């Protein structure tokens, strides 16, 4: 079968012929219909954080149809529309038992430390499979596996609630979901900060107050009284600094994006005086995916303007999309379509 793989760090992905994945007794084989291209894939291609072993098939935003199931699998059959929770835990440890698969010591992430969905097929344990409602397209379900799910988890880590003022730094794939989900969580206002005017226009259409990143967003937010929750969806120490500086008293700054840069923090000036909190968030929980799919099925989470580009499983097209994403250009979210 075909797979787009990272063969060498810092080099373009390559289309290769690989063997079909083996199917364990409790595994499900998914024929991939849609795979989202995430900014994390840009980082993986560049070499931080390091993924592998190489060669590795990338792609952690995956949806498709069941092609086959192992003999121990119940409740799934060929043709079922499904999406894939990308954190594959052992299923038996304390963290897995409590639903925190991202902290499983034996866990692996598809497209990061085990083969991902930039391929014709992918095999994962049945416990990682989530049914997709008929009302939700598989393209939308795919991008929800990271961009929407990670945004919801970050908002929950920031304890977003009724009346909160929220700042979303980065109006990309995660940001467009974060805006809508913050409002669904009860936020009174959501500010969207980005360099890209088109993305700010899309953010405004979803209910956000747009702020151009070139216009000193910290000063604008502080003049309005500061925010209760600020999300860094870009992955930048400078942006995380802006999140901290934008907080109202007792505010929460949540680090989401990937960066190798260090963040200088003054314990007294940045945290103590305002009882501010600096919070890390890692991926999301499988338990949150069903809630997101219901929001989408009910028309409360709109992704038509998020999925702005579709490409085939072609190395030229996919590497070009990654290049655009790396340069903060292009569509909000590009999806590889195999159907």
- The shape, in one word, is globular
Can you summarize the main beta sheet? 7 strands, mixed
Label the structural class: alpha/beta
Helix/strand order? EEEHEEEEHEEEHEHEHEHEHEHEHEHE
Give a count of the beta strands, DSSP E runs of length 2 or more.
18
Q: Helical proportion? A: 25-40%
What is the count of DSSP helices, taking H or I runs of 4+ residues? 10
Write out the CATH superfamily name of the largest domain.
Medium-chain alcohol dehydrogenases, catalytic domain
Per CATH, the class of the largest domain reads Alpha Beta
Return the CATH architecture of the largest domain.
Answer: Alpha-Beta Complex
> What fraction of residues sit in β-strands?
25-35%
**CATH fold-level name of the largest domain:** Quinone Oxidoreductase, Chain A, domain 1
Query: Mean pLDDT score, rounded?
Result: 96
Low-confidence stretches: none
User: For the CA atoms, what is the radius of gyration?
Assistant: 20 Å
The structural domain count equals: 2
**Head-to-tail CA distance between termini:** 14 Å
């Amino acid at each position: 079968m075909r797979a787009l793989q990272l063969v060498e760090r810092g080099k373009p992905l390559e289309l290769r012929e690989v063997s079909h994945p083996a199917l364990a007794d409790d595994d499900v084989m998914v024929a991939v219909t849609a795979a989202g291209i995430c900014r994390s894939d840009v980082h993986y291609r560049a070499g931080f954080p390091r993924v592998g072993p190489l060669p590795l098939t990338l792609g952690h935003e995956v949806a498709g149809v069941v092609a086959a199931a192992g003999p121990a699998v119940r409740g799934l059959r060929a043709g079922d529309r499904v999406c894939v929770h990308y954190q594959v835990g052992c299923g038996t440890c304390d963290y897995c038992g409590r639903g925190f698969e991202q902290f499983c010591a034996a866990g692996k992430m598809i497209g990061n430390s085990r083969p991902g969905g930039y391929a014709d097929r992918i095999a994962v344990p049945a416990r990682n499979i989530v049914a997709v409602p008929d009302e939700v397209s598989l393209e939308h379900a795919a991008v929800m596996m990271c961009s929407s799910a990670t945004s919801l988890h970050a908002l929950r880590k920031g304890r977003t609630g009724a009346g909160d003022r929220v700042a979303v730094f980065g109006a990309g794939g995660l940001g467009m979901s974060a805006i809508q989900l913050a409002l669904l969580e009860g936020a009174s206002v959501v500010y969207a900060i980005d360099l890209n005017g088109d993305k700010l226009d899309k953010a405004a259409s979803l209910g956000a107050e747009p702020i151009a990143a070139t216009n000193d967003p910290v000063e604008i937010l502080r003049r309005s009284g500061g925010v209760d929750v600020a999300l860094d969806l870009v992955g930048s120490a400078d942006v995380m600094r802006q999140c901290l500086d934008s907080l109202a008293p007792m505010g929460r700054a949540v680090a989401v994006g990937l960066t190798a840069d260090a963040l200088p923090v003054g314990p007294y000036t940045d945290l103590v005086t305002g009882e501010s909190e600096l919070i890390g968030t890692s991926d999301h929980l499988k338990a949150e995916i069903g809630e997101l799919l219901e929001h989408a099925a009910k028309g409360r989470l709109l992704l038509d303007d998020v999925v702005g580009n579709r490409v085939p499983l072609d190395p030229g097209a996919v590497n070009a999309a990654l290049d655009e994403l790396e340069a903060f250009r292009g569509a909000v979210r590009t999806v590889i379509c195999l159907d």
